[in-house]
Amino acid sequence: MCDPRLYKPDDAYIHVRVQGRAGAARADPREVTSLLPCRRNGTPRIRRPMSTILDGKAVAQAVRAEAARDVETLRTRGIVPGLATVLVGDDPASRVYVGSKERACTEIGMRSVGQRLPSDTTTAALMAVVDELNTRADVHGILVQLPLPDGVEADAVIQRITPAKDVD
Fold first, then answer.
1. How far apart are CA 106 and CA 83, in angstroms?
2. Residue 116 zone, left/alpha/beta (φ > 0; ψ -120 to 50; rest)
């Protein structure tokens, strides 16, 4: 039994011959046995479907290890990188995200400066906090967690962050 399927990788059409089980309504795509070339512009092309399974935890661990090495290199020069996180209000998802950034900083040897502000904070008050963080020599990056509460002008606050310190 042959179940032709049509795929279009890289602008080239190919038919995939699938060897299915007898009587199966649809063949299992994992049972691909051969690819038949199709002519397009007179050129036969055979493409095999490719997939790569990534181990996200291993990649994350490698990235963190590289960042830790970079931080250690900076520390030997007397520079301790610092990330300031600003959380306005008490959004649970934002709290978890900011907490994970602060833990990641600590794990790789960076300084973490957390600013927690109440949900009734005004745009002017938040801008004053950003201005203070912009002037601090021990803060190399600033993350203002979005969304901000109603009444706070997010665009104005984000634009207030010095571009060299804006981590987003």
1. 10
2. beta
Read off the pLDDT of residues 24-48 as tens digits, 9 standing for 90 and up. Answer: 445 455 554 444 555 555 555 555 5
Query: Which residue in this structure is represented by tokens 């207030």?
Result: 160
Whole-structure pTM value: 0.67
Q: What sections of 24-122 are H helices per DSSP?
A: 56-76, 92-108
The pair of structure tokens assigned to 112 is 């973490």
56, 23 Cβ separation under 8 angstroms: no
CB neighbours of residue 43 within 10 Å:
9
Tens of pLDDT, residue by residue over 73-98, are 999 999 999 999 999 999 999 999 99
Cβ atoms of 101 and 111 within 8 Å: the answer is: no
